[in-house]
Amino acid sequence: MKVVIYARVSTEEQHTENQIPVLEDWAKRRGWEVVKVYSEDETAWKAGHQKELAQLLKDARKGDFKIVIIWALDRICRGGPSAIFPLIGTIHSYGVQVYSLQESWTEQPEGPMYGLLLSIFSWVAEMESKRRSERTKAGMLRAAQLGTKTGKAIGRPKKVLEKVG
């Protein structure tokens, strides 16, 4: 069985190298052939917004593989049910399945609980993402407030514009 790996990180401190060897081993134990690894080494909100996932979708359409294996559902999408259902639906429409190492129930997409569990897990991923963002913003606000009291500048240095004339 030809499979591909999709790995993604959430922060700059993380590395897809933590996911890929485990997923390769999982494929090997099942007798699957990993034909390609799609690796998003930047956060989803930087640069081109998941270029590797876009390429994976193009390749899935060609029928080069039958399964996408991922570390966990939140690696492929954190946008909640309204984002994950169309994404998974598109992948399935190409005759490709998405299996998650952390959520073994994904291997039974025709099962009666699949839609419910997909909704729940994608909602949880979305909430975790929102909470992380809220914590980051609160921390930045606190640091800025402390910076004004101590005279330290927080954030990017202000750009000095030269007057040309």
Assign a percent range to the helix content. 40-55%
- Strand arrangement within the widest β-sheet reads 2-1-3-4
Q: Point out poorly predicted stretches.
A: none
Shape: elongated
List how many beta strands DSSP finds: 4
Q: What's the alpha carbon Rg, rounded to whole Å? A: 20 Å
Q: Roughly how many Å apart are the termini?
A: 67 Å
What is the CATH architecture descriptor?
Answer: 3-Layer(aba) Sandwich
Range of strand content:
5-15%
Instruction: Give the overall pLDDT as a whole number.
Output: 81
CATH superfamily: Resolvase, N-terminal catalytic domain
State the domain count: 1
Keywords:
Rossmann fold, four-stranded parallel β-sheet, alpha/beta
Describe the structure in your own words.
- The protein has 165 residues and is α/β, with parallel strands linked by helices.
- It has a single domain, classed as Resolvase, N-terminal catalytic domain (Rossmann fold, 3-Layer(aba) Sandwich), CATH 3.40.50.
- It has helices at residues 20-29, 51-62, 73-76, 81-93, 114-150; strands at residues 2-8, 33-40, 67-70, 97-100.
- A four-stranded parallel sheet has the order 2-1-3-4, sandwiched between helices.
- Strand 1 (2-8), helix 1 and strand 2 (33-40) form a beta-alpha-beta unit.
- It starts with a strand and ends in a 15-residue tail after the last helix.
